[in-house]
Amino acid sequence: MTKDINAYEVVCRTCRKKFSVQLFDSHEKNLFVAAKKDWYCDECKKAYFKKQTSALSKTHQDIGFAELEGTEKMISWAETIRAELINKVNYLNQSLTFSDAAEKEISDKAFEQLFNQWQAEKNAKWWIDNRKMTVRDISSQIAKFAEKIRQNHAHP
Ligand SMILES: [Zn+2]
After folding, report:
1. Ligand 1 center from residue 83 Cα (angstroms)
2. What ranges do the domains of the chain cover?
């Protein structure tokens, strides 16, 4: 193998192992970046994501969400997405205002139904497929749940 001119030796912040990275700015800037940036080797990066994933898994299971199924990589990604989507739901829930208590009750039930559905979703792929879901998307799902709840009230 030919020695790459853009390869610079850096030190992993966690395990102090030396490894090489490729940098493509001027030699001067590359030297600066190689010395100043926080570098982490592949093993430490993997270990970090594993730790982060298991922390998220625990947090989610503590609030009633299913343990995810899929490859390690998919689960790691899905846990991050799941955290973001739960944040979006909570954000939406907190931003709503109601004209009366009955409306609030219907809304609370709608959120509960959405959460129940999400809590049961154990396929990592489902979360990955839904990664682009916006607050607006969630809002329209909540509206659908609320509409059904209203209909059931009207025609018992
Ligand atoms: Zn390391």
Report:
1. 27
2. 7-36, 46-154
